[in-house]
Amino acid sequence: MDTEELVAAVRDGELRLHELEAHADADAAATARRRLLTEETDADLETVGAYGFDAADAGSNIENALGAAQVPMGVVGPVEIDGGAVDGQRYLPLATTEGALVASVNRGCAAIGAAGGATARVLRNAMTRAPVFRVADVGEADTVASWVRDNVEALAEAAEATTGHGELREVTPYVVGDSIFLRFAYDTKDAMGMNMATIATEAACDVVETETPAELVALSGNLCSDKKPAAVNSVEGRGRTVAADVEIPGDVVESYFDTTPAAIVEANTRKNLVGSAKAGSLGFNAHAANTVAAAFLATGQDMAQVVEGANAITTAEVRDGALYASITLASLEVGTVGGGTTLPTQAEALDVVGVGGGGDPAGSNADALAEVIATAALGGELSLLGALASDNLASSHEELGR
């Protein structure tokens, strides 16, 4: 069917919007949806329809395809990183609509570079899924928990049979009355791994139900915890737990930030630590979510998981006149294969970082991406803290016309 026929079929009730791809190619279906919406809403969708890839390339990422939301993309770097998976200089594309953000992160990265670079490490890799089961009482819950602790190998065998890449690392039981939660943690290699963990956990749940009196209520019981602020992710981590730090000489601090190490340390303590504690925040940082969100959008990560990506602690102290600063992101959920990473612009951005596709060894590309994002986030923290300490935050936004 051509575009006019598709529009007429939808208007006459013969087809629904989600059925168009069964009668035409993906680009024609998207064109028909835009035309129908233009006629019904008077919206001008010319720019939405001016995207640089075949609609079919996004077939697994979107339903009722209309076009594309195009967000400006900038780049920061190069920044020198001594990492577990990164060795040398890397750039990081950032997609954002927030003026001054890329400039700010880039300034921080430049200061890190002038100091000789940052150190970064992935400290833990564990994507989680936590189903909830019902039991008769706490005694039965304790029995199930004991069985699970004694039979992790059997659960791993069932879970890992569903994937050629994922590895079950641990299963932790949590009992709340007649509910028992099992928090499964997986090494998902270069994939972010949420779907992988879900499918694998479903197979393991079948074993639990067969071998114990527990009955599955929901495959996700929110103790995972996915896309929600949660203390369990602050403590135990989810996805990549990654940290980056740097020591910047005092003269470099003054040159790049127009302030002193002591002033930045005080701003960090009173704002990021004391202020966050008073607010009851799970994130003790200045604006880590800004860098994480922009990096996620540019590189095809799951944007909703910025919630966990903002779960970070920034520290700062004076060491022999120099500024030591660090950031630790407890739950940075990233991947370089699958999901949005396969979209053309996002794949290109990953190539800029040097981490497109699967790594060798498996998992090394996602580790590298996590280390680069953490280093850029550290740059963003330094820049904002420097702006606050020198009292030029407002003027910098005014200067850039934001």
Strand content: 15-25%
Mean pLDDT equals 94
Name the CATH homologous superfamily of the largest domain.
3-hydroxy-3-methylglutaryl-coenzyme A Reductase, Chain A, domain 2
Unreliable sequence segments: none
CATH topology of the largest domain: 3-hydroxy-3-methylglutaryl-coenzyme A Reductase, Chain A, domain 2
Give the second-level CATH assignment, the architecture of the largest domain: Alpha-Beta Complex
What composes the largest sheet?
Answer: 10 strands, mixed
- From the helix content, strand content and strand pairing, which structural class follows? alpha+beta
Give an account of the 3D structure:
There is one protein chain. 43% of the residues lie in helices and 22% in strands. The mean pLDDT is 94. It has three domains: 56 residues, no CATH class; 213 residues, 3-hydroxy-3-methylglutaryl-coenzyme A Reductase, Chain A, domain 2, CATH 3.90.770; 88 residues, Hydroxymethylglutaryl-CoA reductase, class I/II, NAD/NADP-binding domain (Alpha-Beta Plaits, 2-Layer Sandwich). The two termini are 47 Å apart. A hairpin with a 2-residue loop joins strand 5 and strand 6. Strands 1, 2, 3, 4, 5, 6, 7, 8, 9 and 10 form a ten-stranded mixed β-sheet that branches. By secondary structure, the protein is of the alpha+beta class.
Keywords, please?
alpha+beta; 3 domains; 22% strand; 14 helices; 402 residues; 3-hydroxy-3-methylglutaryl-coenzyme A Reductase, Chain A, domain 2; globular
